[in-house]
């Protein structure tokens, strides 16, 4: 170690200033804080400044609790922060919706190992659960196992992540400081929680894409908030009165939109005056209609077929090529102005269902160093594997801790949030992500790098769709997106976000395949 002034040493502790506080700095700029303290024989430093600190898991949904289960099995200290009132709070908001994937793909292996000694009975593997059943029969019992009970803090929101004593610009000694998670508790108390590592599995629910074009809210969209709903209202249950006898405009072309449209159609059969308009920006809805009986997921194929029939039977008024440019509120309704090939058009509705997808909340992460793809906002190494411009199949290459790591050591995005704006997340993929991350945190590099996904492939891919909306298949293959097996089998589907997210769309080369035939 280089020489330092003796008076500095005498007025400092262990060769550093601000010893054992959040403002420590080495008196010799050529060495790190830890090196200086070790050289001075300081008694207040372990091998690492982060020894004994917990891993903080953000989000008590399926992926967050899977991370907790793996941490418990590895004997690592951890806490789970959940903004909602209970585990699976986001899923409970769309609990009336049935998943496309059966139970055998909806649970994590480590979680099952913790549940089995408690007498938990696994649900029938081929049954399709609703969101409410996923919470009731899996997440709630998992949160109660002895290894997790007491470590899950509900009604506690993470509002920021940083490095203790450093903002994002500071580099010297950064890796030696613990991460710092700022939380707001149920009574409004702000707490700064030091952490060895942070696994942000908080998802994207509640951060919907705007209804306006070009990724921006339309003028008047904020003022119309009282007339807008999220992507999966409970049309036939708790929200029934809002839609009965009224005109609803559904905007979007994912499975969230399809579920809501079919619920509205069912309501309209028994509630006179109930009207449904469906507006999409594209010129074709082939990718949502899907492959019908050819779909490897029967429930998904049936959804597209039912929706197609409802449109053809005039139960739903479909408006293609509608780009929203303005919202105007007044007289108890909202006027939605949009451009079409025939000029501007105004739709007057009582309620607008925004089923336009989600984006991650990155504002709370501005003080940590992230490496994100500029298009998808997913980790740079992960982005090419999931980019919806080129990938739409349900086959995702195995990826783990190395693909999810950021320049900020110990910080990870996992689950739906790790996919950024890509709507192709698979729940089983999230489980494998956190298994690999936890193995790396435990120092088991071999296990972290041995990444495998149990994802039987779907027979419906990019070009083998044959529907009346898109009458011809092309080359019978999948282009560069994936390979199609000879026999269609179910694929594991996401529940880290609502049913409208996480499913292969079946269009050629992702978004780039949306250029449909003119007569589609």
Description:
The termini are far apart. It is globular and about 75 Å long. It is α/β, with parallel strands linked by helices and 520 residues long. It has helices at 6-10, 33-39, 62-74, 89-93, 109-115, 131-143, 240-243, 255-270, 286-289, 298-312, 383-386, 401-404, 427-441, 445-449, and strands at 16-17, 25-26, 55-58, 78-81, 152-153, 157-163, 179-184, 190-195, 197-200, 228-229, 247-251, 275-279, 317-319, 323-330, 333-340, 343-349, 351-354, 411-413. The chain folds into three domains: 14-44, no CATH class; 55-206 and 359-449, FAD/NAD(P)-binding domain; 222-354, FAD/NAD(P)-binding domain (3-Layer(bba) Sandwich), CATH 3.50.50.60.
Protein traits:
520 residues; 3 domains; 14 helices; single chain; FAD/NAD(P)-binding domain; 5-stranded parallel beta sheet; alpha/beta; disordered C terminus
Could you give a quick summary of the protein structure above?
The protein is an alpha/beta fold and 520 residues long.
Report mean pLDDT, rounded to a whole number: 80
Total number of distinct structural domains: 3
Calculate the terminal CA-CA distance, rounded to whole Å: 73 Å
Q: What does the main sheet amount to?
A: 5 strands, parallel
Give the low-pLDDT segments. 1-12, 41-47, 456-520
CATH H-level superfamily title of the largest domain: FAD/NAD(P)-binding domain
What is this structure's SSE topology?
Elements: H1 6-10, E1 16-17, E2 25-26, H2 33-39, E3 55-58, H3 62-74, E4 78-81, H4 89-93, H5 109-115, H6 131-143, E5 152-153, E6 157-163, E7 179-184, E8 190-195, E9 197-200, E10 228-229, H7 240-243, E11 247-251, H8 255-270, E12 275-279, H9 286-289, H10 298-312, E13 317-319, E14 323-330, E15 333-340, E16 343-349, E17 351-354, H11 383-386, H12 401-404, E18 411-413, H13 427-441, H14 445-449
Parallel strand pairs: 3-4, 3-9, 4-5, 9-18, 10-17, 11-12, 11-17, 12-13
Antiparallel strand pairs: 1-2, 6-7, 7-8, 14-15, 15-16
Organism: Actinomadura spongiicola
Protein name: FAD-dependent oxidoreductase
InterPro entries: Auxin_biosynth/cation_transpt, FAD/NAD-bd_sf
């Amino acid at each position: 170690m280089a020489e330092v002034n003796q008076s500095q040493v005498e007025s400092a502790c262990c060769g550093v200033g601000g010893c054992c506080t959040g403002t420590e700095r080495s008196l010799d700029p050529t060495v790190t804080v830890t090196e200086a303290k070790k050289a001075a024989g300081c008694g207040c430093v372990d091998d690492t400044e982060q020894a004994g600190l917990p891993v903080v898991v953000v989000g008590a949904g399926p992926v967050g609790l899977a991370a907790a289960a793996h941490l418990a099995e590895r004997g690592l200290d951890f806490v789970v922060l959940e903004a909602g009132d209970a585990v699976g709070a986001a899923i409970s908001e769309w609990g009336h919706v049935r998943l496309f994937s059966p139970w055998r793909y909806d649970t994590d292996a480590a979680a099952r190992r913790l549940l089995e000694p408690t007498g938990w009975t696994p649900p029938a593997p081929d049954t399709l659960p609703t969101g409410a059943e996923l919470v009731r029969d899996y997440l709630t019992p998992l949160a109660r196992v002895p290894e997790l009970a007491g470590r899950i803090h509900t009604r506690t929101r993470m509002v920021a992540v940083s490095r203790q004593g450093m903002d994002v610009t500071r580099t010297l000694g950064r890796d030696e400081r613990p991460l710092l998670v700022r939380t707001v508790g149920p009574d409004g108390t702000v707490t700064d929680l030091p952490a060895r590592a942070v696994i942000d599995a908080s998802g994207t629910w509640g951060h919907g894409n705007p209804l306006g074009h070009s990724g921006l809210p339309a003028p008047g969209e904020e003022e119309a908030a009282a007339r807008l709903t999220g992507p999966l209202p409970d049309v036939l249950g708790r929200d029934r009165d809002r839609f009965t006898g009224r005109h609803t405009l559904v905007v979007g072309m994912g499975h969230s939109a399809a579920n809501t449209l079919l619920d509205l159609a069912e309501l309209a059969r028994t509630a006179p005056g109930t009207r449904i308009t469906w507006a999409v920006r594209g010129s074709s809805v082939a990718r949502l209609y899907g492959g019908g009986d050819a779909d490897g997921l029967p429930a998904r194929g049936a959804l597209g077929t039912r929706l197609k029939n409802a449109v053809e039977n005039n139960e739903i008024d479909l408006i293609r090529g509608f780009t929203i440019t303005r919202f105007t509120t007044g007289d108890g309704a909202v006027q939605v102005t949009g451009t079409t090939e025939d000029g501007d058009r105004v739709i007057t509705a009582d309620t607008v269902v925004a089923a336009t997808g989600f984006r991650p909340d990155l504002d709370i992460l501005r003080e940590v160093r992230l490496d994100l793809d500029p298009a998808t906002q997913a980790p740079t190494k992960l982005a090419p594997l999931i980019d919806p411009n080129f990938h739409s199949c349900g086959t995702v290459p195995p990826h783990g801790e190395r693909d999810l790591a950021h320049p900020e050591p110990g910080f990870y995005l996992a689950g739906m949030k790790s996919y950024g704006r890509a709507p192709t997340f698979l729940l089983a993929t999230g489980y494998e992500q956190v298994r690999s991350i936890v193995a790396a945190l435990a120092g088991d590099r071999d296990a972290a790098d041995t990444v495998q996904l149990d994802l039987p492939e779907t027979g419906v891919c990019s070009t083998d769709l044959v529907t009346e909306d898109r009458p011809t298949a092309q080359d019978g293959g999948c282009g560069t997106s994936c390979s199609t097996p000879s026999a269609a089998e179910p694929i594991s589907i996401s529940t880290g976000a609502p049913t409208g997210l996480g499913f292969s769309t079946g269009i050629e080369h992702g978004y780039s395949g949306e250029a449909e035939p003119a007569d589609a």
